[in-house]
Amino acid sequence: MKIPSIESILTGAEKNHQTLWQYILQSEFEDSGMPVDQIIRRVEETYTVMRNAVRSGLQEHGRSLSGLTGGDAFKYYERIETGRTVLSDFNAKAIAYAIATNEHNASMGVIVAAPTAGASGILPGVLIAAQEEFGYMDSDIVHSLIVASGIGAVIATRATVSGAAGGCQAECGSAAAMAAGALTYLLGGNDQQVMHAAALALKNCLGLACDPVAGLVEIPCIKRNGVYASMAITACDMALSGIVSFIPPDEVIDTMFQIGSMMPACIRETAEGGLAVTPTGLAAKERVFGVKKEK
Fold it and tell me: Is the pTM of this model over 0.85?
């Protein structure tokens, strides 16, 4: 699905007297030719995969295949259950679920790239926690996922969701924007608030490097998903209060792409810069692959 702009979603939905999810669903039908009921079933299946990934990731299943990560979602969820978190249960669960998804991915489990594997925990973490906290029906979550897909489609059309092309701002930044917009829609925000939430989230990811230790989607990706799930919730809460992004959403997306194209290749998923080449990062690479540390 290719959607040229956030503004085209807003004006199209208004012109056709449709909700955001209805307009985006219609756009997908027109683009793919897939019947609407089939599209909805696919989104339902997608949500099932997301929930299964969280459930599996919360188990204390040891380390990832690389041995670098694992068990943090279980550890953090235990803290929630004992009532020791500083954050609200909703916010804390979103973090735990985001981490769980990415730990499941690092263990070769099935996840949904939302929009990428490296950022796969943010959207499900936020929406699954919201459903538990506020009692939404699965159909409500499906509608919010469709809204998220529209935001992601605009980012992919105008810019990129690839860490190799745009750094982690294009991965975790896009996912945070999708999650913030989806949550704002779910909580009853108006169309403008939905898109301002997405812009507020993306703005605060600009310039984020993609610097995976040992080239694996584990460090810092897993914990970063937890942090940006929380940021998506913050952006939603700000938008619902009436705070707007001074820079319009489409301009924020364009700026992300511009910044990504200016980033040196060493901090765009090559593992040749940033955290990946710290002494600890290089030592981890040597342990995993037997590669000698650079001097």
Answer: yes
